[in-house]
């Protein structure tokens, strides 16, 4: 697992804004692509399994390698999600009656100096419906297999595929929480925010019990991803103010951790138990404020994020909070 830098590095190091970063890369050809992970219906014994496609030998890019359903975003595509649907149909003949949208992953950039290209990759996860038709491959691929994320090393796959997997993969607990939040449409935005806080609070306890999360950096990274998926994938059509409020929670925790980690010389040296206690304490405070929704403290402390941010401000904030993930 890639180790997260210290929190001071995360928040204070030079990190160009999206606009500046594009300027830096003007010597590279810019291409935006979608990358779709078509998953089997969940089985408790199997875990996440997604389709890997073997590229034909006559393909100009990555011939003979294994990858997922990928293609360029065209000018005629209404959105990256629309482009993903189009590519899936073109390459597999699957339609909305065969697959259901699970979630999107945070886009990321990779550079190919040989091709003088910088790729912006938009990852998506889809799930096959029960009774879905068999996939019919076009000439781009010769066959497909279903694989687990941990078995990627067995395959001679396209570059950076692990990064795409990490962007769409969530724990079974978060998978169930996202499904529940998507289906509880009667609760409204406030109910969604309260439920999201409870999910985060419970997630701290779950992460505390995981033996493979032994460092503060690993814990913080997993927690950041959980916030991102709740904000972006918790419920279609959620208002921007609720997403902003979830990011407010993360930023509040981030600030407190920065103060406490300074005492220890950085997040890497901060005891994991202390980090978790800080996160739990702040989440508990937000939960109490939610229960006192009509009190002045709620209005002053929580609803300040109802101020709408511009698109550029929102992008820069996401880069600040999630740029190193």
Automatic annotation (TrEMBL):
Domain Nudix hydrolase: from-to ranges: 52-152
Native source species: Rhynchosporium secalis
One Pfam family cited in the UniProt record for this chain: NUDIX
Protein name from the UniProt record: Nudix hydrolase domain-containing protein
């Amino acid at each position: 697992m890639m180790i997260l830098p210290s929190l001071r590095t995360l928040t204070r190091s030079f990190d160009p804004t999206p606009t500046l970063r594009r300027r830096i890369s003007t010597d590279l050809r810019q291409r935006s692509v979608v990358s779709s992970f078509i998953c089997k219906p969940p089985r408790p014994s199997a875990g996440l399994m997604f389709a890997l496609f073997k590229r034909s030998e006559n393909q100009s890019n990555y011939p003979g390698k294994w990858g997922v359903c990928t293609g360029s975003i065209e000018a005629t595509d209404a959105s990256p999600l629309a482009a993903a649907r189009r590519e899936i149909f073109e390459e597999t003949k699957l339609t909305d009656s065969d697959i259901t949208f699970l979630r999107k992953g945070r886009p990321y950039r990779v550079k190919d100096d040989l091709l003088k290209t910088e790729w912006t990759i938009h990852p998506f996860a889809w799930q096959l419906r029960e009774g879905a038709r068999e996939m019919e491959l076009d000439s781009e691929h010769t066959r497909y297999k279903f694989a687990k994320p941990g078995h990627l090393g067995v395959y001679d796959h396209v570059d950076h595929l692990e990064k795409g997997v990490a962007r769409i993969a969530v724990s079974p607990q978060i998978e169930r929480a996202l499904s529940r939040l998507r289906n509880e449409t009667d609760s409204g935005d406030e109910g969604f925010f309260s439920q999201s806080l409870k999910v985060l609070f419970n997630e701290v306890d779950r992460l505390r019990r995981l033996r493979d999360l032994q460092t503060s950096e690993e814990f913080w990274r997993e927690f950041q991803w959980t916030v991102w998926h709740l904000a972006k994938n918790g419920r279609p059509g959620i208002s921007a103010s609720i997403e902003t409020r979830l990011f407010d929670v993360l930023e509040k925790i981030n600030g407190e951790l920065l103060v406490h980690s300074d005492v220890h010389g950085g997040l890497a040296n901060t005891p994991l138990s202390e980090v978790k206690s800080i996160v739990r304490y702040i989440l508990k405070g937000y939960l109490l404020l939610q229960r006192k929704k009509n009190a002045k403290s709620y209005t002053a402390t929580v609803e300040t994020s109802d101020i709408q941010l511009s698109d550029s401000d929102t992008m820069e904030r996401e880069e600040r909070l999630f740029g190193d993930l």
